[in-house]
Amino acid sequence: MKKIAVVFALHLVAILLSVAVAGHSQIRRVPAAQVVVVVVEGVVYCQNCSFRGTWSLESAATVAAARVGVTCLGRKNQVIIRRTASTDAAGFYAAGDFYKGDPARACYVRLLASPEAACDDPTNINYGFKGAALKDEGKRATAGLHDIMIYSAGPLAFQPASCASMQ
User: Fold this and answer.
1) Domain boundaries defined on the chain
2) For residues 109 and 93, what is the distance between their CA atoms, to the nearest angstrom?
3) What residues form DSSP beta bridges with 68?
4) Which residue in 127, 108, 124, 109 sits closest to 159, CA to CA?
5) pLDDT category, 144, cuts 50, 70, 90?
6) Which parts of 25-154 are beta strand (E)?
7) Average pLDDT in the 149-165 region?
8) How far apart are CA 163 and CA 50, in angstroms?
9) Can you tell me whether residue 49 is helix, strand or coil?
10) According to its UniProt record, what is one Pfam family this protein matches (predicted)?
11) Is the confidence at residue 50, as pLDDT, over 50?
C-alpha cells in the first residue's frame, strides 16, 4: 500500500506540472475558485483465459505500459479534455487536468492499447471499451492554490485474442 501511495504522489506531481504549463491560459479566464484539478486513477489488467466472456478479474495480471484515454465533455457534448496516460509497472495510471464541472457526469476512461501482444484485445469490463464512468470516492488534496479531486474508474482489462495456445 505504501508503494502505491508513493507512485501516486509521483504521478500527481507530474500531472500538476504538466497541467500548470499546458493549462496556464485557461486558469486566467476562469476564476480559481471554480476550477479544480481533476485526477483520474485506475488499474489495467490482462484477464485470465479461464474467465473470458465474463467481467471476472480473478487471477488477472496487471499490464505495465498500457495506454488509456480520459475524455471529458462540455455542456454541448463537445470534447473539452482529452488526455492519455500509461500504466506503471504495477498497472496503475493517473491522468489529470483543470476542469470546471462534474467529472463523474462528463468524463470517461477508455482502453487504448496494450504493449503485450499476447493480451491486447480490449474487453468491456467496467465499460473500458465503451467508456468507463468515473467514481468520486471522496479523495481530496491541495497543491498550492489548487484543489485536487481524485476520481477512479473501475479496473479495466484486455484479454488474449486467442486462449487456445495459452491453456
Assistant:
1) 35-159
2) 11
3) 85, 111
4) 124
5) confident
6) 36-46, 61-62, 67-73, 79-86, 92-99, 107-113, 121-122, 132-143, 146-153
7) 91
8) 9
9) helix
10) Pollen_Ole_e_1
11) yes
Q: Are 155 and 126 in contact (CB under 8 A)?
A: yes
> What residues does 36 pair with on adjacent strands?
99
- Residue 71 CA to residue 79 CA, distance in Å, equals 7
What percentage of the chain has pLDDT greater than the value 90?
63
Measured over the CA atoms of residue 69, residue 75, residue 78 and residue 80, the dihedral's sign is negative
pLDDT of 39 higher than 90: yes
The architecture in CATH of the region 35-159 reads Sandwich (2.60)
Q: Which amino acid is at 6?
A: V
Average pLDDT over residues 47-76: 96
Residue with cell 488474449: 160
The answer to whether 122 and 109 are in contact (CB under 8 A) is no
- First-to-last CA distance in the chain? 32
Q: Looking at beta carbons, which pairs linking 163-167 to residues 24 or more positions away fall under 8 Å?
A: 163/49, 163/52, 166/49, 166/118, 167/49
The grid coordinates of residue 156 equal 479495466
Question: Please, what is the average pLDDT of the chain?
Answer: 83
d(CA 117, CA 101): 38
What is the per-residue pLDDT for 15? 52
